[in-house]
Design goal:
The structure holds two protein chains of two kinds.
Chain A lengths: L1 H33 L2 H8 L16 H15 L3 E7 L2 E4 L2 E4 L1 E7 L10 E6 L18 H11 L5 H25 L3 H5 L8 H14 L1 H14 L1 H4 L2 H7 L3 H11 L18 H11 L4 E7 L7 E6 L12 E5 L5 E2 L7 H15 L5 H35 L8 H14 L1 H15 L7 H22 L2 H26 L4 H4 L5 H28 L20
Antiparallel strand pairs in A: 1-4, 1-6, 2-3, 4-5, 6-7, 7-8, 8-9
Chain B lengths: L8 H32 L4 H25 L3 H30 L1
Helix pairs in contact in B: 1-2, 1-3, 2-3
Classes of the chains: A alpha+beta, B mainly alpha.
Chain lengths: 548, 103
């Protein structure tokens, strides 16, 4: 019985993995890049200046708050809410924020929300900061990141369902893969290099077990992002399917009443002592913003909010509430949504990793790359196994169409997609800056190159296609910093001396990726040489065909 | 589930039927389980629905694995259909009782 379970799970693992593998590889590549989406966007907007240190350094908090209040009284004397953002180091996007004000006007009759506006102010003088240079039009890091759930060239509704099905298949592949495993820890330390299929299996096992908790977390939380799209039964049966019923459901879940504000003005109490009180609790520089608003039937209140990033409930940072007339501390409002809402929020944040500091983000990035390696080795394992099967049955003369197709798709995905992502960065620097729909052309470049690699994989002998495309990816990444140096002044010669680690880090990471592809290409190439020198590459792929 | 050498039409149909039982039958069963869990969850209704829906993906996973593990495709279908009917029936009764009690 136990043996039967393992066998049936092995079958399920194999086929579920194959069906979803290529799409999941795409999702993992673009999603992994997404952990650095803000850094990538910055690189893709070289015109933008970056605030590298505290813009409010040396200016008293009370002075900034006073300047901000004066400006708010000027631009929005009758408002539903005022918000002052104090200079702080934010995590999403990860950069220094300066002094900013934001307001919402009283809604017009019949409307729930009023018009809102915002301005950036000089912390010392309160003067309106001039807008920075307009960056080039680019899809940026967000474009890559967004594709990992919204794909491209198709409607959002279709895309999230397709990705959802693939994600569910991945969850099944993980669970069935674990069941198939007899001895999960023994297998983890088992590695037999240079043994063809056996080595692929060992590599696949090792990579999969290494980051298993990450894979389970990222898959399950991925499903939870669009949970009511994937599993609407509970909500639809108990609340109804219309838009009004669904919005009623969310209002109930998050205990939202009608959005009704009364107009506010400059508060009677000084803000600086309240901020000081919050800083005493959270530490200096941990206050993100001060909001002044008044809900209908309640006294006007002042809300001091912490910089998001203190907890796994990223978007609900701690707040302190004060009475705007007396400065008296008010009871904190309970977090809406209860334990269910909190659980969902924690899953979102584990998935997005915004709470993580720079090393935490690298850990996410590496775990994402291991995900790519897991899917890649799994796909190659499938074709290596099948090819051996066909060779064994004496049909080596007849190219098996299915196996050949899988092999071509493997090359084009595992070696071709990274090459296409490099083309996305090339396009950012090489497309004319004033071309219409520039961001769209960046995407077109990516997909055109990717399609090109598929044709290439079909046209070349398989073994040659692997090696050549891997070297192609290596060259494409190695040249990204070079093209950057030729087309912008934010290159390594400038970013390294000035200690701008975001931009320097991007260029250096490109070279690290190039080195990784070179290593893989060399390993794979060596596998082509006559037996005896067989070497195993963990991240690349090399079916046996070329040996013959 | 068996070796590829036994690729008879009957075998193919049985695999296809099992896949359908797992994917579609499993989804129906999971939907019914989600509604029932939403009704039974000891929290405000809206939160119960959120909990049940978050857990539904685990239910679906277990249902699919069972469908591939069980002895035959027929058994897989039987389990899915009767499970769905049973869970929906209990949900229906609970809902009626709630309505009656509340009125």
């Amino acid at each position: 019985m136990k043996e039967h379970l393992r066998q049936s799970m092995a079958w399920l693992h194999t086929w579920v993995g194959l069906v979803a593998g290529w799409l999941l590889f795409f999702v993992f590549v673009t999603g992994t890049a997404g952990y650095f989406q803000y850094e990538i966007t910055r690189w893709m907007e070289p015109e933008r200046t970056m605030q590298l240190d505290n813009p409010g350094e040396g200016v008293a908090t009370g002075h900034m708050l006073e300047l901000a209040l004066q400006r708010l009284e000027q631009v929005a004397p009758v408002a539903a809410s005022w918000r002052i953002t104090l200079p702080h180091e934010a995590m999403a996007p990860r950069e220094w924020r300066g002094l900013e004000i934001r307001w919402e006007e009283m809604p017009l009759p019949g409307h729930e929300w009023g018009a809102s506006g915002s301005e950036k102010l000089d912390p010392a003088s309160g003067a309106l900061l001039p807008a920075g240079p307009e960056p080039r039009e680019t899809a940026g890091g967000r474009g890559l990141y967004r594709m990992h759930y919204a794909l491209h060239y198709m409607s959002y509704d279709w895309a999230i369902r397709i990705v959802g099905i693939a994600t569910m298949l991945m969850l099944l592949a993980i669970v069935s893969g674990v069941i198939t495993h007899k001895k999960i820890f023994k297998d983890f330390f088992t590695f037999r290099p240079g043994k063809g299929q056996r080595s692929w299996l060992d590599a696949h096992n090792a990579v999969s077990v290494m980051a298993l908790p990450f894979f389970l977390m990222i898959t399950y939380s991925g499903l939870v992002f669009f949970l009511f799209t994937y599993m609407p039964a509970g909500r639809d049966v108990l609340y109804g399917t219309g838009p009004a019923e669904q919005s009623a459901y969310y209002d109930e879940l998050f205990e939202r009443g009608e959005h009704k504000h009364e107009p506010i003005g400059k508060p009677a109490v000084a803000l600086a002592p309240l901020v000081a009180q919050a800083e005493a609790e959270w530490g200096a520089g941990r206050v993100a913003s001060v909001t002044i608003e008044r809900h209908e039937g309640e006294p006007p209140e002042i809300l001091v909010a912490q910089v998001p990033g203190g907890s796994l409930d990223f978007w609900n940072p701690a707040t302190l509430r004060f009475h705007a007339g007396t400065g008296e501390r008010l009871e904190p409002e309970p977090r809406p949504g209860g334990s269910a809402g909190l659980t969902q929020s924690v899953m979102f944040n584990l998935h997005e990793g915004l709470f993580a500091d720079i090393w935490g983000r690298w850990l996410y990035f590496v775990a994402g790359l291991l995900g790519c390696a897991m899917i890649g080795t799994g796909l190659v394992l499938w074709s290596v196994k099948r090819r051996r099967h066909h060779l064994g049955s004496g049909r080596e003369g007849a190219e098996h169409f299915g196996v050949r197709l899988v092999e071509a798709l493997n090359v084009a995905t595992i070696a071709g997609l990274p090459l296409a992502v490099a083309a996305y960065f090339w396009a950012n620097r090489l497309l004319p800056v004033d071309i219409a729909d520039r961001a769209a052309w960046e995407f077109h470049s990516l997909f055109a190159v990717w399609l090109g690699t598929l044709f290439y994989a079909r046209a070349r002998p398989l073994a040659r296609a692997w090696v050549e495309l891997l070297w192609g990816a290596c060259a494409a990444y190695a040249l990204v910093p070079v093209i950057n140096a030729l087309t912008s002044d934010r290159h390594l010669g400038q970013t390294l001396p000035s200690g701008d680690w975001v931009l320097a880090g991007f260029d250096l990471t490109m070279w690290a990726l190039a080195a990784m592809f070179a290593y893989t290409a060399i390993k794979v190439r060596r596998r082509l040489a006559p037996a005896g020198q067989a070497v195993q590459a963990a991240a690349g792929a090399m079916p046996r065909k070329g040996v013959a | 589930m068996k070796k590829e050498s036994t690729l008879t039409p009957a075998y193919c149909w049985s695999v296809a039927s099992r896949v359908a039982a797992a994917a579609l039958g499993g989804y129906a069963l999971t939907s019914a389980a989600t509604v029932l869990m939403s009704l039974l969850w000891p929290a405000p209704r809206a939160q119960g629905v959120l909990w049940a829906t978050m857990i539904s993906f685990t239910v679906y996973t277990v249902a699919v694995i069972w469908a591939f593990h069980t002895r035959s495709a027929a058994r897989a279908w039987t389990g899915m259909v009767f499970g769905t009917l049973l869970l929906s029936g209990i949900s229906w009764l609970l809902w009626l009782a709630e309505r009656g009690g509340g009125a």
